[in-house]
Design a protein that fits this description.
Blueprint lengths: L2 E4 L14 E4 L2 E7 L14 H18 L7 E8 L5 H11 L6 E6 L9 E8 L1
Parallel strand pairs: 4-5
Antiparallel strand pairs: 1-2, 2-3, 3-6, 4-6
Helix pairs in contact: 1-2
Length: about 130
């Protein structure tokens, strides 16, 4: 099966050697998104909820560029530098994904790129 790379200017450009997403067959693998504002590549202003929303806005933009939506997500992984933000990220995720929710893992990590406190990636089935 061939790989098709996905790119949109509505999400931040890759900050490393990776694609925003790769489609193989009916599956789309979205790279981790952090709360960078597309265009400025600066971390969004505001509280944790604002940063989490920016992460989901970025994932949504990439999903749409691939021809899908976050409701096509079958697996999400959320990385947090503080699991104390677990409830807040749940609230934000519910704004972007309808039931039945995708399978998900939430993992506390010691650090994330650019010093942010949240990152998420996804796998879509379109």
């Amino acid at each position: 099966m061939s790989k098709i790379t996905i790119h949109t200017d509505r999400a931040p450009a890759a900050v490393g050697t990776y694609s925003q997403a790769v489609r193989v067959g009916n599956f789309v693998f979205l790279s981790g998104q952090i709360p960078l504002v597309p265009g400025t590549m600066k971390v969004v202003d505001g509280d944790f909820a604002a940063r989490a929303r920016q992460v989901f806005d970025n994932l949504k933009a990439v999903a749409e560029e691939a021809g899908g939506s976050l409701n096509d997500a079958v697996k999400l992984t959320i990385f947090l530098t503080d699991l104390g933000n677990f409830a807040a990220v749940n609230e934000v995720m519910a704004e972007y994904c309808d039931e039945p929710y995708p399978a998900r893992a939430a993992v506390q990590v010691s650090a994330l790129p650019k010093g942010v406190d949240v990152e998420a990636d996804a796998i879509l089935a379109i």
